[in-house]
Amino acid sequence: xxxxxxxxxxxxxxxxxxxxxxxxxxxxxxxxxxxxxxxxxxxxxxxxxxxxxxxxxxxxxxxxxxxxxxxxxxxxxxxxxxxxxxxxxxxxxxxxxxxxxxxxxxxxxxxxxxxxxxxxxxxxxxxxxxxxxxxxxxxxxxxxxxxxx
Length: 149
Ligand SMILES: CC(C)(COP(=O)(O)OP(=O)(O)OC[C@H]1O[C@@H](n2cnc3c(N)ncnc32)[C@H](O)[C@@H]1OP(=O)(O)O)[C@@H](O)C(=O)NCCC(=O)NCCS
What we know:
Elements: E1 2-7, H1 15-25, E2 37-43, E3 46-56, E4 59-67, H2 76-90, E5 95-101, H3 105-109, E6 114-119, E7 122-128
Parallel strand pairs: 4-5
Antiparallel strand pairs: 1-2, 2-3, 3-4, 5-7, 6-7
The structure holds coenzyme A.
């Protein structure tokens, strides 16, 4: 079973969760965690994905969104990103920003984030809060889906 869990700013992050960040980015806890909401996804109670959101300089920032390699391609990253965008909406975010390598901008573009600047391989992306759309059915082509009225 896939489950999501939130850790509030300042809450101690268990090492099992930091191990996901460490495995993907090679680093663990830092001073930003005290300011961030951390989202973690569990697959059958095993932490397999994470990401965080914090407020800085007039915008909500998303960062360190990661899925352990064996769990990729199962829409777990999509769930992590949607959780973070939902949190931004919940906080009435005026805009949401992130910095990501060029190779993953397509992943974020699917949910409406657009490149606003580049610094080497790092791309800054942004979506105005009022343009966040978490409707999973919108672009689905599945016929006869029970979700369709
Ligand atoms: C980017 C990452 C989070 C994606 O996680 P994932 O669980 O494999 O992605 P999902 O299975 O949820 O993919 C959802 C959709 O995004 C697409 N997608 C995934 N990675 C993509 C990429 N790099 N570029 C473009 N599209 C991508 C998938 O094809 C899928 O498309 P669909 O809706 O048409 O089926 C994961 O590859 C990762 O941890 N990468 C390393 C860390 C990183 O670079 N993080 C970003 C910096 S903040």
